Amino acid sequence: MERYYRPEIETAPREEILKIQNEKIVKQVRHVYDNVEYYRKLMDEKGVKPEDIKGVEDIHKLPFLKKDDLRECYPYGLLAVDLKDCVRIQSTSGTTGKRVVAFYTQHDIDLWEECCARAIVAAGGTNEDVVQVCYGYGLFTGGAGLHGGAHKVGALTLPMSSGNTERQIQFMMDLNSTILCCTPSYAAFIAESLKERGYKPEDNKLKAGIFGAEPWTEEMRKSIEEGLGIKAYDIYGLTETSGPGVAFECSEQKGMHINEDHFYAEIIDPDTGEVLPEGEKGELVFTALDKEAFPLLRYRTRDICILTRGKCSCGRTHVKMCKPMGRSDDMLIIRGVNVFPSQIETVLLNEGYTPNYMIYVDRKNNTDTLDIDVELSPDKFSDNIAEMQEMEKKLAAAMRTMLGIGPKIHLVAPKTIQRSEGKAVRVIDNRKLHD
Amino acid sequence: MAVRQLSVFIENKKGRLSEVLKGISESDVNLRALSIGDSADYGVVRMIVSDLEKARQLLGEDILSKVTSVVAVKMDDREGALYKILKTLEEADIDLMYTYAFTSSKKFGAYVVLRVDDVEATEKLLSEKGFELATDEELSN
Q1: Percentage of chain A surpassing pLDDT 90?
Q2: Verdict on whether the full-model pTM lies above 0.80
């Protein structure tokens, strides 16, 4: 039988959800307008007043927020409450310079953790479960979110954080973990490591896994489910909106229910900004309906997605989003880290290389790989191989500092990377992440 | 004094070396010596040729090449000849980046090529120690 963390909300009739959303958005727009100067200016420029927003049907009148706005407002520009009322900061992974920092009041933390709790219960979690959280702990939202959610459910929580597979396996086997939370690629890696050590899928006590923070396919789901003997559930979220738990999969395992009482979702045409009707493919935009400290209105996620409202066999009534089908910008998610080609270009120029490069992303043995072909310029060429290898090492180290992950550098001859006449193709992603 | 070496960058891909050598081979430029240093992705082809300017022309602009001065020492055709040279460098604390040997059948037998930081100082040292050094002119015909 399907279980819910908040049945009265999760299975509420459409009209009731709409009523909750309408009430919340009116208050939220007022709160943001009064407390966030940056957004107030955007609204004023667009000629929108808080009183123009009478319900979610008016949300389309509000201006968008983009990642650039967040960078520009770093660190306090979008904060809507006094700092003394905040209890937590989390931050995006992987980008240096101006990261995105998100602030949380205790109310925001509770809201976020409840979303994660709903995801855990949807995956079959109860207070009898042992939840092994091997998302990273720290600024990254993965660890904190699922950890808090597991507490809310009353499960026994194993705050493992990421890495140290030997220890993960030891705790999993000795302490009988029943639910695993991590990135899908790490889950696949754990499955492989268990197999290498001679364990069969039935040797562990796991029954479910909640996997997110990076794109994955149905094939990968199947291989993880078989490898660990579990059901694998997807979870979606981003630091800007709180973290994981904005949407989560139910027993149907077909799309993720968005927690609509907290987050209002729209699909827009990424080029025109126009709102698209249900069922059409476009960019996913979120409005936080009742977050206090960092309440983003109409935040453009850049994830390309479809929303559907059909009846779900699990009984939940909240709208469903499909797995993101791509990006409307050129951001890559590699081993859970956000990477922009422009960052790679910056490093190359800083290190004295030409901006002629090609990025290859692939997934080998369930781990993302990043290879960069870099054209050698005449002044960098040396007849001494050791000197060139030293250069490669230095470049890889500079990349690691900028990106947060280390690429493999391949020096290639000048003029061998294809020049394009229109928009340059800089990335070849062979992972086939989208079905 | 020093001998000029032509170094060419090539990617480790099938057919790349013959592509580079094709033009030179079809001309009257004579390849005296060739050595390759390589890593996983690429190699450096080091050549001593009879006509360096012409060889560079034949390579064309699209092939990354570089001219480096190296020391070419004549070797006696007897055991321990190379060791004697290396020992001399070592005693003078001269760091050797790489080395290779070749023979020139026509005139004087064997040479060893030494790639060092300070070509002048190395040549001076080796001359003083009685080694015979080759010059570009000698190797050009």
Answers
A1: 76
A2: no
Cβ contact, residue pair B11, A412, below 8 Å: yes
Three-class SS of residue A283?
strand
Tokens of A99: 């990261």
Q: Quick: pLDDT tens for A99-115.
A: 789 999 999 999 999 99
Contact A286, A264 (CB under 8 A): yes
Chain B contact residues (CB < 8 Å to A): 5, 7, 9-11, 37-39, 41-44, 46, 62-64, 66, 68, 97-98, 115
Distance from CA of A324 to the nearest CA of B (A): 35
- If you count residue pairs, one on A and one on B, with CB atoms under 8 Å apart, how many are there? 50
Cβ–Cβ below 8 Å for A384 and B41: no
| CATH number of the B3-68 domain | 3.30.2130.10
Q: How confident is the model at residue A327 (pLDDT cuts 50, 70, 90)?
A: confident
Strand partners, A237: A244
pLDDT tens sequence across A341-368? 888 888 998 898 988 899 999 988 878 9
CB contact set of A348 (below 8 Å; sequence gap of 6+)? A354, A355, A357, A374, A395
Give the CATH number of domain B71-140; options: 3.40.50.620, 3.40.50.880, 3.10.50.40, 3.30.70.260.
3.30.70.260
The CA distance from A5 to A126, in Å, is 9
Task: State residue A95's pLDDT score.
Answer: 47
> How far is the alpha carbon of A94 from chain B, nearest alpha carbon, in Å?
28
Residue where the block lists tokens 């453009």: A300
Residues 6 or more apart in contact with residue A393 via CB below 8 angstroms = none
Residue closest to A110 by CA, chosen among A287, A295, A291, A298: A291
Give the other-Cβ count within 10 Å of B20's Cβ: 20
Chain B neighbors of A384, CB-CB under 8 A: 37, 44, 97-98, 115
Measured distance between the N- and C-terminal CA atoms of chain A, rounded to whole angstroms: 30
Task: Give the count of beta carbons closer than 10 Å to the beta carbon of residue A334.
Answer: 25
Q: Taking the alpha carbons of A191, A195, A197, A201 in that order, is the dihedral positive or negative?
A: positive
Contacts of A353 (CB under 8 A, 6+ apart): A374, A375, A377, A380, A395
Q: How far is B134 from chain A (nearest CA, A)?
A: 20
CA distance B140 to chain A (A): 21
Domain locations in chain B? 3-68, 71-140
For the cut 80, the answer to whether the pLDDT of residue B108 exceeds it is no
Q: Which domains does chain A have, with CATH numbers?
A: 7-329 (3.40.50.12780), 334-429 (3.30.300.30)
- Interface touch B39/A389, C-beta < 8 Å: yes
Give yes or no on whether B3-68 and B71-140 have one common fold. Answer: no
Per-residue pLDDT at A1 exceeds 70? yes
